[in-house]
Amino acid sequence: MDINFRFAIVSDLHIALPHTIWDHPSRFHLVEVSIPAFESVLEHLTQLDLDFLLIPGDLTQHGEPENHNWLTKRLSQLPFPVYVVPGNHDVPVLLANEQSIGLTEFPYYYHKFGYENSQQFYYNCQILPGVRLIGLNSNSFDEDGKQIGRLDQQQLQWLETELAAIDNEIVLVMLHHNVVEHLPNQLNHPMANRYMLENAPEFLDLLRKHEVKLVFTGHLHVQDVACADGVYDITTGSLVSYPHPYRVLEFERDSLGKEWLHIVSHRVESVPDFPKLQESSKQWMGDRSYPFLIKLLTLPPLNLPLAQAKQLAPDLRDFWATIANGDGVLDYPNLPLEVRHHIQEYGAVTHTGHHHAIDNNSKLLIGD
């Protein structure tokens, strides 16, 4: 059966009404643009013939009830269905406090956007004939109340049962945390592992068992497409950090049974207070990159002395912006050889050293 549909992804909105914005000298998030950037995206998307919109978490700045309320009202005005999942910023606490909603409240806010069962933090719904979306909650809390990226056993068992009952439908999966590595050794890297699902290997085994091939994530704030043994993790950068991207995708199953996913990425180029958003946002990120770069250079696997890291960090000012932009080539000939080679691994290159640009605009063969 031929199946064709078009949808969009906007991720990590970090919606913040002006009076709720808090500042921190090293934050990469330009939350000041969250609402005008989202409005710019919606102006474009409402002109397209979309079947649905996916938002893979971090809908709000820090789970503030009024920011959740603003967003749910805005989403309800759109001419196409919207489906969301919670990010770590949406439910930073298990139980509500004076600042944020709790995990238990999230389904009540978003009952029109996937969560028809307000007692459950995940869902399985048919969004089109022959197309099914599974929205998962990757936010767990340990016994001390610390937030971690993990699918609990109850959710995994539910997922196993749901997938086993699906017959000859396209299955899309959405969650906040990454499940395939988008950065070198991401699952174990001391800085990058918090963006990964802790039990990603177990989860991926379950997806492969049931031949699920498409997963949509956020959290990392980069444009990247990664694949591990047939499962694609398509992560979309944040709307409030450079390069302020969003995606329009088309799925096609042709008469021969081949399945294709066409990906086209867009950027928000300007908003009223930032007429040259791309330029000013990249500058913002570079200006605040120094503490991040010092950590990157002094932690494993490089383990550079602090003095050497301080010397090298300024040359890497645009390192993260290049990664966030997707399809980047990272080469700094003046760096020490070991450091240069490690930094190159973050680029969009194959193991043979060839540039492989699929992060922003690509046509992926999903199955045949």
TrEMBL record:
Instruction: Name all Calcineurin-like phosphoesterase domain ranges.
Output: 5-222
Query: Could you tell me the keywords of this UniProt record?
Result: Hydrolase, Iron, Metal-binding
Record's Pfam families? Metallophos
Residue spans crossing the bilayer: none
Q: Which first-to-last residue range defines the signal peptide? A: none
Which InterPro entries does this chain map to? Calcineurin-like_PHP, CNP_phosphodiesterase-III, Metallo-depent_PP-like, Pesterase_cyn
Give the similarity note. Belongs to the cyclic nucleotide phosphodiesterase class-III family.
Q: Which PANTHER family match?
A: CYCLIC NUCLEOTIDE PHOSPHODIESTERASE CBUA0032-RELATED (PTHR42988:SF2), PHOSPHOHYDROLASE (PTHR42988)
Can you say what this protein is called?
Answer: Metallophosphoesterase
